[in-house]
Structure formats: C-alpha cells, structure tokens
Specification:
The protein is mainly alpha-helical and 586 residues long. Helix content is 55%, strand content 8%. The strands form 4 sheets. A 3-stranded antiparallel β-sheet has the order 1-2-3. The chain has a 3-stranded parallel β-sheet with strand order 6-10-11. The longest helix is centred in the middle third of the chain and has 57 residues. The chain is elongated.
C-alpha cells in the first residue's frame, strides 16, 4: 500500500544465466483492486534505479538534497535507497554489535545516512537542506575567489618590488644616472629600466659607481633604522591603546559609582547640603563641591578619550603603512647590493665595468620579458565578483539558522531515545532501566551508565544486540509514522529469536521468556501504528498463543520460501553454483 486507496505492484525477473541478480523491473500502479497480473502479461519497463526513484517520489523523496558534512560545497540526493536502511534487518545484521542499520558495513551508505538523518527526523526540510548545500557551495567558492584575488595582488606586489629592486641595481652599476627622476610610479619604473637596456654598452666606465654603492649601503642602514623606529612606534601605539581602554573603563566605573550613590548631582554649582543626610551645611565645607568637580573632571576625561580613539586608530593604520613601505624599500636596496656583489666578487672596485653592466642588463631584460603587466580593469572586475560572492554568502546565512536546526535535531533525537529506553526495558536487555539514546554520528546505541557511556559494541551477548536493534528500529518507525516522515512504512525482520533458540543460547541469554517478550513488543507496536505500519517477520520459532497463530500468514515448512516447482533442477543447480541457495524450505 502506498496510500489510502492506492496500490503498487512491483516485480523483477529472475537473473539471467550466470548472474546472481537482475537490474530490470516492472511496476504497475492502481487502486485497492489492483492485483498481481498474469506472468505472461509482465514485461520489464525500467531498471532498478528508476524503480527506486519512482517509489521514492511516491513517499515524498522527490528531488531532496542535503549537504555533505565531509566535503565543502557538495550535496547528496536523499533517495529510497538511503531510506530503505530503516526497513530491513536480515539474520546477520540483527544480531551483530558492529552495525545498527541494514547494509551498515558500506562506508559510503553510512556517510549518506549520517548526512540524511536530520532530514528524515524533520530537523531540516528539503528546501532548507538544499539551502545548506547552497551555502556550503557558496562559502567554498568564496574561499577560492579570496585566495585567487589575494594571490593576484601578491603577484603584482612581488613584480613591483622586483622592478624597483632592478632600478637600484641599474643605478649601482651606472646604467641609470644619479639625476634620474624618482621611481614613484610603475610606468616611470618601466621607462627607467627600458632606458637602462638601451644605454650603449661602450659608455665610459662611471667613476662614481663606487660612490653609488656606498650610497646604497648608507641607504640600507638608514632604512633599517627607520624600520626599527617605525615598529617601535607601532608597539607604543598598541600599548597606549590598551592602556587607554583600561583607563577609560576605570574612570567610567568611578564616575558611575559617584552617580549611582547619588552623592552629587549633575552640576557643580550650589552645593549647600550634605550629600549624605541632606542637612544644610554651615560654614566652609569643601566636600560636596570637590565631589561634583571630580565627577565633572571624570566625564571630561571620558569624552576626551572617546574623541581620541579614532585618532589612535588612524595613527596605527599610518604606522602599519609606513612599515610596509620601508620593508619594500629595504628589500629593493638589499637586492641591488646582492646583485652588485654577484656581478663583481672583487668587492665593488670594478662595478662600473662593461661586464657588470651586461650582467644587470641581462637581469633587467629577463625580468621585463617575464613580467606580466597588471591589468587594473581585470583586477577591479575580480574585486567586484569577490564582493558579490560575499553578499551571496551573507544572504544565504541569513536564511539559515544552524543553531536552531541543531537544537531541534537534539530535541527530536531525545524523543526517539525515550521510546528506545522504554522498549529496551520491556525486552530486559543489558542496562535496562537506564537512559539509552541514539548516536546519530556513529550510528549506534549508547547507554549512559555510572561508569560512563557504553556503546553497542561494548555490550555483551547476542540477546542484547538483537534487543537494541529491535528497540531502535521500532522507536524510529514510531516517530516516522507519528510525524509522517517520508520513509517506507515497513520493517522486515529475519529471525530475531536466533540468540535464544534451543542449542544456540549464549552466555547471558538463558531467559526462556526472551522470545515471547520480543514477539509481544512487535505485536503491540504494530497494533499501535496500524494501519500505517507493517512488520513482516520471518521466523523458525512459533508460539502456541492464539494471537500469534492469528498473525501467521504463511508457513513454508517443507516447501521453502521459494517453491521448488518454480524452476527445474538444472536451474536450481545453476543457482546453487552462483550462491543462490535452493534449500530455503527449512
């Protein structure tokens, strides 16, 4: 049943020869009278993936996407394939401590389930989940744009620094005259370097080259001193700002005390009464006047400090800009002197000769050929796109409130954990009577004990593992049905009695009523949620109770779950060879 008055018939053909499964399927939709068609009328109309999409859309899983928690900017689609983990527990899964959900050994499916759980519980809806995915993608794109823009700016600054360093080098070897204009702009720097390249190679050796190198070294020392002074000034400004903030807080506190105690008024004039008893004062008593003057002085100090704050900030900004400029200039001078030394190991005595000039010319030529001009229009366009990306992230953040979603998720999980604890008590499992909860990140059960939290893996015996599997799935389906969440209204269980069966009892599972408690809990939950929920139980164990016999729909003892006459012996032998068992009649 898909909904009131509707039915769906789904079938898949037997696997082709040599295959263990088939990916083809057929599906038919109809009303309450829809039945199984004749075999000859069946034909495959879609594959298994398309079938899951269609059935998922029927229960509300249509184009639902959630954000991935392990990858920026990515999202996943929530489909019936993910929702089906709540509906099946085969005999190998229901009695294990290592996994709680169907196909839990698949790491990719576990990751999808962790990400999709907030949607299944209703902490986020489909649209909000998509907005979360959009926000992650926008934040990821913004970080990339910021990194690219910063890299472009750094590259431009590095090129500028290299070009200005070459100007100093050209000056050191006499390729640029001492009366050349100052290299204040990028265009002027390029013109100076171009003129250095075109300077004739047969020029007389500049006898003032040594003086220029000496001047560069003096400039290096001066820049280092200025840089040290600038950094010291910045430190003083920072300390002054910190101290001023502390002083401002202190005087505000003192002024507040004077005013809150109402020892003085708002004015310093006419204080004729005692500030404590309000009795008229006789004679000279300066105390009220002094208190009023002190309050006025404190308020003036506060106003002056408030006015000074923007000035301190501007001074700090100016100090930082000065430090950056001095560093760039020092780097350029250092590079010029390093190049001069490399060009003339003799120590600068021959810096003006042709070989030195040729060496610097080669560096200038190589740098100008490799230096890409800064496209100011492109840089401004990148800056505009970056601002648009920031505005998009800000807008998406305003439409989401992650804190509210987390609080809602925790609240809903607590509701489910309450039912889980109640069912665990009825089954009499280990830690019954204590708080038991779902861990949605690790996809397991956690019992809170006096010795600390204990997960399913830390609990012993197959009976406990089966009990907690049943309690968790029943609690989840009770929530799903009551909240009308888009999950299949089905739970299919394969032999939950196996740890308690005769000859297979394990340590701690000797309670003869354990199986009865399991069946009675399944009965009660199915009755509570009927007709919106169905439990299908495949079992070897039978109870003699009338209610149990009434719920048995089919017994395959001696026949097999798949009738033997559905295939010939050759087909059964082939299925046996590829792992499909034919002895399913036990």
């Amino acid at each position: 049943m898909v909904g009131p008055g509707s039915r769906v018939f789904v079938a898949r053909p037997k696997p082709s020869r040599g295959k263990a499964t088939s990916t083809l399927a057929t599906v038919r939709f109809g009303g309450e009278t829809l039945g199984a068609p004749a075999l000859e009328d069946l034909e495959t109309t879609l594959n298994s993936d398309q079938l899951r999409d269609q059935l998922g859309a029927l229960i509300g899983l249509n184009d639902v996407r959630v954000a991935r928690s392990d990858e920026d900017g990515a999202s996943i689609s929530v489909t019936l394939d993910t929702a089906s983990v709540f509906s099946f527990q085969n005999q190998d899964e229901i009695a294990t401590k290592s996994q709680l959900f169907h196909r839990g050994t698949d790491p990719q499916l576990r990751r999808r389930l962790v990400d999709a759980f907030p949607f299944f519980l209703g902490a986020v809806d489909g649209d909000q989940a998509q907005r979360q995915a959009d926000l992650r993608a926008a934040e990821w794109a913004l970080r990339r744009q910021e990194a690219d823009f910063e890299a472009t700016v750094r590259d431009g600054a590095r090129i500028e620094s290299s070009l200005r360093a070459l100007v100093h080098e050209a000056y050191a070897v006499g390729l640029i005259s001492a009366d050349a204009p100052s290299s204040d702009s990028r265009q002027l720097v390029l013109e100076l370097l171009t003129s250095a390249l075109t300077k004739p190679g047969t020029d007389d050796i500049d006898t003032a080259v040594g003086e220029r190198v000496h001047a560069l070294r003096e400039q290096q020392r001066r820049l280092r001193r200025e840089l040290t002074d600038a950094m010291s000034n910045r430190t003083l400004l920072l300390e002054a700002s910190s101290g001023a903030f502390g002083y401002e807080s202190a005087i505000e506190q003192q002024a507040g005390r004077l005013q809150s105690l109402q020892l003085v008024g708002e004015s310093v004039a006419e204080h004729r009464n005692c500030p404590l008893c309000q009795q008229a004062l006789h004679g000279d008593d300066p105390i009220p006047q002094q208190l009023a003057e002190r309050l006025s002085t404190l308020r003036d100090d506060i106003r002056h400090l408030s006015t000074a704050t923007p000035g301190r900030q501007r001074a700090l900004a100016d100090a930082r800009a000065q430090i950056a400029t001095l560093r760039d200039q020092l780097v350029a001078v250092d590079a010029a002197l390093a190049t001069a030394t490399a060009a003339d190991p003799a120590g600068g005595e021959q810096l003006g000769d042709l070989a030195s000039r040729a060496f610097v010319r080669g560096r200038i030529d190589a740098t100008l050929r490799g230096a890409q001009p800064v496209d100011e229009d492109a840089l401004e366009a990148n800056r505009s796109r970056l601002e648009q990306a920031r505005l998009r992230v800000s807008s998406l953040r305003e439409t989401l409130n992650d804190a509210e979603s987390r609080d809602l998720l925790n609240s809903l999980t607590n509701v489910i954990s309450g039912d889980l604890t109640e069912y665990a008590d009825r089954l009499g499992v280990e830690h019954a009577g204590r708080s038991v909860r779902l861990d949605l990140q690790r996809l397991t059960i956690v019992a809170d004990t006096l010795d600390g939290p204990r997960t399913l893996k830390q609990m012993g015996s197959g009976g406990n593992w089966v009990g907690y599997h049943l309690a968790a799935h029943l609690a989840l389906h009770r929530f799903f049905v009551r909240q009308q969440r888009p999950t299949p209204r089905l739970l299919m269980l394969d032999q939950p009695s196996q740890p308690f069966s005769e000859g297979r009892q394990r340590q701690g599972n000797t309670d003869p009523d354990a199986v009865r408690r399991v069946f009675e809990l399944l009965r009660d939950v199915a009755a509570e949620l009927a007709p919106d929920f169905q439990i299908v139980l495949c079992e070897h164990v039978e109870l003699d109770d009338e209610w149990f016999r009434r719920h048995v729909r089919q017994s395959w003892r001696g026949e097999g779950l798949v009738p033997r006459d559905w295939a010939d012996e050759a087909t059964w032998a082939e299925y046996d060879a590829i792992g499909i068992r034919s002895d399913t009649h036990d």
